[in-house]
Give the backbone structure.
Amino acid sequence: MRWSFKIGKLFGIDLKVHITFLLILVWGALNYGGSAGPLYGVLVTLSLFALVVLHELGHSLAAMWYGIPVRDITLLPIGGVARLERMPEKPIQELVVAIAGPAVNVVLAAMLLPVVLGLGIFQTNALTLGLIMEPGLLGLSSFLLFANISLLVFNMIPAFPLDGGRVLRASIGLFTNYQRATQIAVSIGRALAILLGIFALYEGQIFLTFIAFFIFIAGSQEGQAVAARGLLRRVQARQALRENRVALSPYATVGQVASMMLSNPQTNFAVLDPADGQFLGVATSGRISEAMQSGQWHRRITEVMDHAKTIPTIALSTTLDEVQDKLAEASTQFVAVYDGLHFKGVITTNDIYRVFQFLSQSGYASQKFAA
Ligand SMILES: [Zn+2]
């Protein structure tokens, strides 16, 4: 995420904060400080976000248990995000990963409850909600207990992108396929979002209306993404390879390729060794025009291309949903397709989009839940 800074490492996972997080500290200092002053407000806010980190760690450690790498945990003013390389599609794994976060809040609440009760008996004769805002150990632990329960309840609302939505899909997925389970979970989530929206509007709660709207949109997006994956899973790399593509010799210059590009709609070119057909890299139109703009038209194409060793490779039989994962993992625009040791061609994000467009327009999509 842009404007995020690494502040530490937990269990091998980078912990980052977004720059806007600093604003929430200021807000917390003013809002939670009370009679104890702004420093106490900062302490309260930081402990709140410690809860969020522990929640995200719950998801992350469960994912790592299943061999799914975790890129990082980022703290934003609205909460935390653990970026998993992928979400497990096996229902039981998704269930465990989704529930591990809220489970942390259950454990923390169970640990805080005796503290609050114990301190409460000695300090006051009645435990009230007003206590939460009172500076001190009792106030802070009551606040954290309350925050834990709120986090738990909110996250378990059965709608995407909340944990509850994933728990719901995974639970339905135990009885039917992933696509169908997603469709049902999305419908339930949208219905809840509409109910929540109506309630929020009726009550005049603008923030809640916004959340309801967000949940509705996120549900639709999840549904579309899963449907798209289902379509792409039916196509192998060999079917998506474009024929009659022009490949370049490593001796070509930037200027030569640029003039060739005028008459060729290709936006990227594989560079092959003329002697043995070995794949050397990919020259993109972007890199070529960059080089032209800085007057490097005489340079060899090999000097401006992306080298083969930096490009992920796949087999002819790899399905396009896996190709999509590879592209996302490596944050690149193309993969090299091999048949054993033989280079067969390049597949780009555009090629995947083209296949997807074709499939969804040709009526293939209407049978997407048949599998
Ligand atoms: Zn969560």
